Amino acid sequence: EVQLVESGGDFIQPGGSLRLSCGAFGFTFSTSNMNWVRQAPGKGLEWVSAISGSGEDTFYADSVKGRFTISRDNSKNTLSLQMNSLRAEDTATYYCAKRIDNRGKTYYMDVWGTGTTVTVSS
Amino acid sequence: QMTQSPSSLSASVGDRVTITCQASQDIGNNLNWYQQKPGKAPELMIYYASNLRTGVPSRFSGSGSGTYFSFTISSLQPDDFATYYCQRVDTFGQGTKLEIK
Question: Which residues of B touch A59 (CB under 8 A)?
Fold first, then answer.
C-alpha cells in the first residue's frame, strides 16, 4: 500500500527548532519529487517546500526561506524538514505529499500523509 | 495567483454544484482539485483540469483551460460535504467549504 507517515510535530517555544520526518512506503521513493504542505488552524493549504528525487534540487516558500531545510535519505525512504527560528505563524499541521511531475513544468500530489501538528507558542 | 470561488456554498443532497478557479495568467490545463474533510489530509480528485483520478466517482468532473477552470459535482451525496481546493504548482486556491443546506 502506498503510504506516507509523518512524525515529529510538537509544542515548541518561539525561536526553537524542530525536525519533521516523513516515512514513505509502497512506491519508489528515490524517483519521486516530494512536497511539504502546511495548514494553519482553520486556514487553507500553503505549499512550504519541495525536493527533487535525487535531493539535489530544493525549493522554499518565501515565508520559510532561510529558516527551514528540506532533505531526504533515499536509503531509508525518509523525507525531512528541519525547522529553525520557529514563529507563532508556523503553527500548522504539516503534510508531506508525493508528486507526479510532468516534464518538470507542473505536477499534482497523488499521495498525502496524515499530517503532524506543530504548535509554536510561549 | 489562483482565485477560487465561492469561499463557501450551501447545498442539498442531489444538487448540482460548481466551484470555479481563475488564474492570473494562462496556465494551460495545469490545474488540480483536491477534497479535504475535517481533520483529514487532502485527497486528489481531478488532475490537469479534467482527468478524474482512478477511484473517484464519476459525479465529479473538471473542465477549463487557460485562466478559467471549474469543478462540478453533478449530484451531491452526503459524503461530498467537505472543503475543496484548486492547485497549480506551489499555489492553492483559498478553498470552498461545501456545507449541507
Answer: 90
